Each structure stands twice: as structure tokens, then as C-alpha cells.
């Protein structure tokens, strides 16, 4: 039997002769689980729900199964699903939706469970704004390949995309007035995602990438000069001042408002690309360094993040940060439950490695393997498929990883067509890397299944898979074209800032060049 499942299952797959016909209206006995999940399947299969007749779909709870695991058994008498939790049920129903063709399902038995707990997809709606319908479609497409985290990058130098009822000046700063999500829309997206097994982790980038906050509240930078939201990419030197109490008087109630909107246990606090030039010259920051007994200005960022993370803990939330945050020794010391998202070796190579070796919870999004805004010449489909947890120069063999995540930054992505062509099919390749154990993965087999998948689920479009692994010459052309596009888009100040706060270590530069071009 042709079973074009992506990601490939991790357990027993047994196929039998015969098929069961999908009823015209779906009768389901979901046992201890709510019926809403079955309704999502009915919607995908194109049938209505029915409260009458014997159940065609039967769900049983089994607490002995591991988190998100499921058993799916299809016989001529209907479908039986066993799961320990709601997500296990969601993934069983996703598998069922893929198997459902021409109003029937082949008889089979599948046992399946994920490799990593966090299987993420990041969408940047701050650099360019995307409508709610597009966001929901992305979540549906990623749910079909069993991703369970939608990391929503909502704030940056180019915009603030969350309606704040406490501080409406924030969403009032966007270049185009209506380009933010109302609280009602956010609740709708959160609920739609929940029914698809996906939790939404919002990212509020702090203390850098915060021009949208500073445009609304210019007093919160060190020098307190006016700041504008503008659409150019890059790294801004003017960031939030952790020496000023007023910064926390804004951030604490703001984080409280955001925490109430997103039921996820996690809130991403960013922490990347925060140049320290302004802090070094600021009397408030210098005083803070002194009164808190900090050794330097990297430690000040660690202290700042710890204040926010401890505040979040009081709200029942855990912080996630980009790996630059570990340049301060205050992290994770002051925040033991911190989750780190690894994207790049910044000026020092040691801290992220030590964090991982000491059992820290780490989500991997290496920029050269998991950044989908990069050209196919840099991140080929095959490279994305083979992505495994690890850091530049350190494979971490045997160390457990919390998860994998693909990131789609939108500095150069402004239309649905561009979004689709950058995301797909690479996001599907990494989804399989996140779900399926390495010994069960095979690239040629994935490519065969991918063609069938894209034929059936074209979604919002995709880059042609047969062009997604370009040859050597096209690869170099693509990389150079991308670098030129980037250099052209950066204004002079941002070009100067591009070295991660002017502290670009030569070893980092060498590694960057090696990974970018090889
Ligand atoms: Zn300051």
C-alpha cells in the first residue's frame, strides 16, 4: 500500500486488505476526549458530524502511552484510536486525514510517537505583516505534519503586532495603521491551533529589536531620543534601558496582558542582537551594573532577562530566549527553568555548549539549516531534511535535545507567494526530522512521499521540489544573490551594526563563511 505519510511513523505499521467507507456524516465516540478534535478531522475529510448511529470513530484513553503517542487501527468496522493525551489524538486524526482518500480509508494498524517534544515553526509577522487567514493556514499546514509549536514573532523594530488594551500606543506605531492582530483575532488563532495540536508561543523581543516600543515610549531608551518604526532590516543600536524603573513599569503589566492571551506555558523573550553601546554610556545602566554587582554589560542583559523571567514564573509561565542571552553568567543561574533557542554561535562559542552539556532545555534552529528565509542555495531541501541537533563544531552526540524548529524571518518576505515558496517544502523536511527517528528516515523515500503529498495538499503553494537541491553553480549564484540583496537593503547604520553589536569575533566570521558557503 502506498502510505504517503509525512512525517514517517516511528512504530509498527501494518497494512491489511480492504477499506472502510467514510460515512456521509461522522458519528464518533470520543470517550474522555472532547468531540471538537473529531470535528477538525470531519472538516478535513469534507463530511459533517453526526450525533446518531453507531460510532464509526472510537477513541480510548490509555494513560500508559507516552506523551503525544497514538495507536490507530482501521478495520472494515470503522476506526479505533488510542491516545494518552489530546495531542496524541490530534496526531492520530492527522494520520487518518492523510489516509482518507476517495471517501474511504485502507485497513491498517499504526503505532506512532514523536522523537522531540518541541517541533516548532516560527513565523515573523513583525517585519512584514500577514493576515489572520494566512496565519491560520500556516498552522493548519504545519499541524498536518505534526508540528506542535507555532512560534509567533510579533514584535520588532518594524512593528508591534499585538493589540494592547493597556498600552494602545504600542500597536498604534505600525507603519500601516491596521497591521496588528486584535485580541479577539489572537484568541481565534489560539483556539484554532489548539484543536490542531499546536500551541502558540508568542515572542516579545527584548531588550533589542524593540524600536516599536521605543517609538511609542521614547523615554525608555538610555538617551530618550525619538525613535521611528521603519521597514529596513538590520540591528538597531538604540534599545531598551534596563537602568530605568519605568521600563519594568511598562513591561510587567504588558507581559501580564500578553500572558493572559496565550495559554502556552512558554513566552519567548527574544534577547538576540542587543548592542551594548548605549548602555555603556548611560548613567542609569552604569548605576544598575554597580548596585546589582554585575561584572559587565552582557551581565546586565542577563539580569534584565532574569527580572522578566522570574516575573513570568509568577504567572505560571516559562521564558524562552535566543542563545545570545547565555553570554551573561546570570543565565541560566537565576532562571533554572530557562529554555534556550540556539540559532548561531555568537562571539563566544562556549556558553551554549555548556548549557546543553549541563542538561539545559534547548531548541535547535541553526541558521544555516533551519532558517527558511535563506535561499535554497544555502539551505537546500536535503540539508534541511538532514538537520540534527548540534552546534557549529559540536555535535553533542548522545545529549538529549528538547526540540527542532524552523524559522521564517520576513525581512525579505512580504507576499503569500514568497512565504509559501520559502517555507515549503523545506518546513516539511524539518518536520520529519523533528518527528521521525534518524534510523527510520531516508531522503529518497521522503522525496517520493513529498511529491504525493504536494499533489494532494498544495496548500498556499511551494517551491518546486526538483529545484530545491540546486547544483553547485546555482548554489553559489543563489548565495551571492541573497548576500547582495541583504547588503543593498541595509542602510549605513545598520550595516555597521550587522556585526552583532560591533563585536564580531574572527572565529565566528570564519565559521559563518564556512557554513554559509559549504
Ligand atoms: Zn541605560
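^ C-alpha cells above, recovered residues below v
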Amino acid at each position: 500500500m502506498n502510505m504517503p505519510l509525512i512525517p514517517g511513523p516511528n512504530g509498527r505499521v501494518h497494512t491489511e486488505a480492504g477499506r472502510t467507507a467514510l460515512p456521509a456524516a461522522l458519528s464518533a465516540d470520543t470517550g474522555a476526549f472532547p468531540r471538537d478534535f473529531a470535528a477538525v478531522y470531519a472538516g478535513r475529510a469534507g463530511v459533517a458530524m453526526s450525533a446518531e448511529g453507531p460510532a464509526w470513530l472510537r477513541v480510548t484513553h490509555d494513560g500508559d502511552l507516552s506523551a503525544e503517542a497514538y495507536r490507530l487501527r482501521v478495520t472494515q468496522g470503522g476506526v479505533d484510536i488510542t491516545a494518552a493525551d489530546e495531542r496524541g489524538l490530534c496526531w492520530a486524526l492527522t494520520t487518518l486525514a492523510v489516509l482518507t482518500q476517495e471517501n474511504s480509508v485502507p485497513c491498517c494498524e499504526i503505532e506512532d510517537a514523536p522523537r522531540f517534544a518541541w517541533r516548532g515553526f516560527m513565523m515573523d509577522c513583525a517585519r512584514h505583516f500577514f493576515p489572520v487567514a494566512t496565519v491560520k493556514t500556516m498552522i493548519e499546514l504545519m499541524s498536518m505534519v505534526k508540528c506542535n509549536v507555532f512560534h509567533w514573532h510579533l514584535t520588532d523594530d518594524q512593528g508591534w503586532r499585538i493589540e494592547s488594551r493597556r498600552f494602545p500606543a504600542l500597536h498604534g506605531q505600525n507603519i500601516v495603521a491596521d497591521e496588528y492582530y486584535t485580541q479577539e483575532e489572537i484568541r481565534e488563532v489560539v483556539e484554532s491551533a489548539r484543536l490542531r495540536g499546536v500551541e502558540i508561543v508568542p515572542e516579545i523581543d527584548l531588550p533589542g529589536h524593540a524600536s516599536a516600543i521605543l517609538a511609542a515610549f521614547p523615554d525608555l531608551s538610555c538617551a530618550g531620543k525619538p525613535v521611528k518604526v521603519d521597514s529596513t532590516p538590520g540591528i538597531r543600536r538604540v534599545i531598551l534601558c534596563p537602568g530605568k524603573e519605568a521600563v519594568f513599569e511598562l513591561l510587567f503589566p504588558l507581559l501580564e496582558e500578553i500572558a493572559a492571551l496565550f495559554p502556552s506555558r512558554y513566552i519567548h523573550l527574544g534577547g538576540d542582537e542587543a548592542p551594548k553601546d548605549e548602555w555603556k554610556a548611560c548613567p542609569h545602566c552604569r548605576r544598575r551594573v554597580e548596585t546589582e554587582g554585575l561584572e559587565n554589560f552582557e551581565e546586565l542583559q542577563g539580569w534584565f532577562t532574569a527580572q522578566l523571567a522570574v516575573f513570568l514564573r509568577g504567572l505560571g509561565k516559562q521564558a524562552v530566549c535566543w542563545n545570545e542571552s547565555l553570554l551573561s553568567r546570570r543565565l541560566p543561574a537565576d532562571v533554572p527553568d530557562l529554555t534556550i533557542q540556539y540559532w548561531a554561535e555568537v562571539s563566544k562559542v562556549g556558553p551554549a555548549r555548556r548549557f546543553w552539556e549541563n542538561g539545559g532545555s534547548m531548541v535547535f534552529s541553526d541558521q544555516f539549516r533551519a532558517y527558511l528565509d535563506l535561499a535554497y542555495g544555502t539551505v537546500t531541501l536535503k540539508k534541511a531534511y538532514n538537520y540534527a541537533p548540534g552546534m557549529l563544531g559540536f555535535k553533542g552526540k548522545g545529549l538529549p535535545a528538547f526540540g527542532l524548529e524552523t524559522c521564517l524571518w520576513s525581512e525579505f518576505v512580504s507576499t503569500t507567494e514568497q512565504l509559501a515558496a520559502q517555507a515549503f517544502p523545506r518546513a516539511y523536511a524539518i518536520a520529519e526530522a523533528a518527528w521521525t527517528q534518524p534510523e527510520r528516515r531516508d531522503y529518497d523515500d521522503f522525496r517520493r512521499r513529498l511529491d504525493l503529498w504536494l499533489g494532494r495538499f498544495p496548500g498556499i503553494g511551494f517551491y518546486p521540489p526538483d529545484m530545491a537541491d540546486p547544483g553547485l553553480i546555482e548554489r553559489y549564484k543563489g548565495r551571492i544573490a541573497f548576500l547582495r540583496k541583504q547588503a543593498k537593503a541595509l542602510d549605513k547604520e545598520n550595516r555597521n551594526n550587522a556585526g552583532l553589536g560591533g563585536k564580531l569575533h574572527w572565529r565566528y566570521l570564519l565559521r559563518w563563511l564556512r557554513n554559509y558557503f559549504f
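DSSP finds 19 helices and 17 strands in the chain.
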